[in-house]
Amino acid sequence: MMQTMTSQSMQQCIDDCLHCHRTCLQTAMNHCLETGGPHTEPEHFRLMMHCADICRLAADFMLGSSSVHGPVCAACAEVCHACAQSCEQVGGMDECVQACRACTESCRQMAQGLDLGNFTGQARTTSTLQDRLPM
Fold it and tell me: Shortest CA distance to 97 belongs to which of 80, 84, 81?
C-alpha cells in the first residue's frame, strides 16, 4: 500500500525532477534559442523539451502517490540521461547537464527501489525499460 507521505528518497526525486524540468525548459527557451546553431537543432531542442515534460510528469506521479510512478521514473531516467549527453555534446549547458544527471540518478533509484511484481501488467514493460537504462 502506498503511503500518503513521501519518503525522503521520493521527496529528493521529486525535487530533482522539478529542478530538471525548470532548468531544461529555461535553458531551451532562453539560452538555446538565443544562441542558435547546434543549440536549436531539432533533435536536440525536442529532446530538451521532452526532458522537461517527462520530469514534470514524473514529479506529478510521485506527488499524486501513483502506484505506477516506478515505470514513469524509469522512462524519465532514460530521457534525462539522453538529454544530459546531448547537452554535454552541444556544449555550454553545464547547469542543464548537472540537473539531468541528478534527475537520472534519482529516478533510477526510485524505479529500481520498487517491487515490480506488484505492477500487474506493468512488470514486463518496467523491466524492459530498466534493462535499457545505461549504468
Answer: 84
